[in-house]
# Entry
Amino acid sequence: MKSDDGSKFLYVNRSPSFLETQVDFDSSQFVLLGAPLDLTGTFRQGYRFAPNSIRAASVGIEYFSPRAKRELVDLKIADIGDIELSMEIKAALKQIEESVEEVVSRGKKVIVFGGEHTVSLPCLTATKPDVLVVFDAHLDCRDSYKDLRVSHATWLRRALESGVVEKVLHIGSRAYSMDESDYASGKITVLQSLEIIKSKHRSIRDIVNEMERCWVSFDMDVFDPAFAPAVGNPEPEGLYPTHVLDLVHDIPSKNLVGFDVTEVVPEYDHGQTSLLASKMAIELLAMMRGL
# Structure
């Protein structure tokens, strides 16, 4: 199925649309696309089912954000469906990059539902933000993993090496190798999970300047598995939803160019992880709609 906006890319499997939106591309302020990448997972697979699972969960959530004090019922968001991705990783990432580039070139803010966390790499390449704010249990800074140089465990290292982003704030980390820790030192500002739980962390506004163009990336394993069990690589001692929502609403929203939500594997729970992923997207949109 071709997208309604006449894009050169094929978009499929949009059922239902996020927040049941019926806005067309040209009338929208925001464009949502699914990137169901499911090629490099090393513990669980099934990421390809996540975009529709997150969409379906959104139907049952209230559209008003008490934190942002904004209503989303009339939000101008066009959900154009999922990219029909190649089964070869390099080609699939290029498809995502070109799809995001096309949306941004037409003056829209972009939201991407993954898929594995590797989808963030082409999103950054396409949008070239000044700063990346990433919520994740893992640093994803391995040089290679399972003989792969580009994967869900290496994408952030590749992004830094390529220069598509230079400033990174990493929130919720608690699972990484010594090599990753050494690599990240001096390159990435890290707010570890335990610091946040004990309220001993710096304010995001002390790190991210309001004038910087910002991309936000959500790996759902930032949450404790008690709240988000259906992720690719669950890790204990994670954050509570309240911790994360407090942090999200501390992000200077003036120059948010877009965000992604990744790493949901829906079959491993009864919908609570997709529900939480949908809630995170709604809260970020509530912040962005006031811009």
Observations:
- The longest strand covers residues 77-83.
- Residues 11-288 form a domain with the Arginase; Chain A fold (CATH 3.40.800.10).
